Amino acid sequence: MWVLGFVSALMDISSEMIHSLLPLFLVTTLGASALTVGLIEGMAEATALIVRVFSGAFSDYIGRRKTLAVFGYALGALTKPLFALANSTGVVLTARLFDRIGKGIRGAPRDALVADIAPQHLRGAAFGLRQSLDTVGAFLGPLVAVGLMLLWSDNFRAVFWVSVLPGLAAVGLLLVGVREPQRQEAGRRINPIRRENLKRLGASYWWVVGIGAVFTLARFSEAFLVLRARQAGIPLALVPLVMVAMNLVYAATAYPFGRLSDRMSHTCLLRLGLVILIGADLVLAVNNHWGVILVGVVLWGVHMGITQGLLARMIADNAPADLRGTAYGFFNLLSGIAMLLASVIAGLLWDRLGASFTFYAGAGFCLLALLGLAMVRRSAG
User: Fold this and answer.
1) Which residue range(s) make up the domain with 332?
2) What's the pTM value of the predicted model, to 2 decimals?
């Protein structure tokens, strides 16, 4: 578990060195609009989530998770130089799509591998631990990016080149440091997308999938947090610090809330996450002073710590062991479609009505999600 967490941390350092600067690079260097940023981010994240359907199902079919995970991490590492070479939004989009395809290939098999390794009574803690280490990388990446931007006088491309190194280190660690457990179904291949197998994913599983999609619709890309921070007049090199703050809070809260999910109602935790996200959206909407934005970013990180590992654990609990890869795949398919819609809507609102209206709309989607949870009598906890 710890090795998988450190693999995720290294790749997140690599990715977040780029992603924390990419909205600024697009707007200030390539002259892109907020809508373009939203489209690129939405398409990229949706691609990653949609690809997980096929990688998850394929990992169930071949009965091996690690091989696909290694390939996905390697593809993510090898696409990093494209960002340094990009001279147009089209090249950035291409780089983002291939990078996210790599993430999609590795995501569902890795989550299924976590579920395969962890004892059932510790699954919440296991997913929380992996998420915490993953998020440590997610705040170290922007921190390294800030340091290099200050050192190299806002040289985006030089930072993008350096990001290749931790990505390659993640691939090497996964290759030598993780042993896949022998599965009881070894030697017996199943077709996970056949009708009779899909029927084994019951109503409780699809309820979790629907809730996850609604959550994603209410939470658009974090690229808009970076753009909001830029509006506060924060120097260009220091803007990625908002992602450092968000991911630091995310990392600090993911494991404690993961352990809490082993003992209390999952639905109650989901409601708490939505309430905190509403608070984050409202704070970010009312003012663009850097102190106010910091409060909103911290609340955003707490919401992520509560909900992301929890939803992953709920999928593991509600899917058969031999279909976990497929289960995570379909979960991410619906979440990917929701992410694309949310980011495009956020970009349109930002360009036409302003940043504040974008965050007010996010709070509105959260209220709708809360109403939906209130009407659902079945508890996933």
Assistant:
1) 2-176+200-375
2) 0.71
Q: Each residue of 229-265: pLDDT tens digit?
A: 888 888 888 888 888 888 888 878 877 887 887 777 7
The domain that holds 32 is classified in CATH as 1.20.1250.20
**In this structure, is residue 186 part of a structural domain?**
no
Please tell me the total count of domains within the chain. Answer: 1
Please count the other Cβ atoms lying within 10 Å of the Cβ belonging to residue 24. Answer: 22
Is 45 within a domain?
yes
CA distances from 257 to 119, 128, 129, 213, 252 (A): 18, 7, 10, 21, 9
Q: Tell me if 153 is assigned to some domain.
A: yes
Q: Is residue 184 part of a domain?
A: no
Residue-wise pLDDT for 298-329, tens only, equals: 999 999 888 887 887 888 788 887 777 778 77
Instruction: Tell me what the pLDDT averaged over the chain comes to.
Output: 83
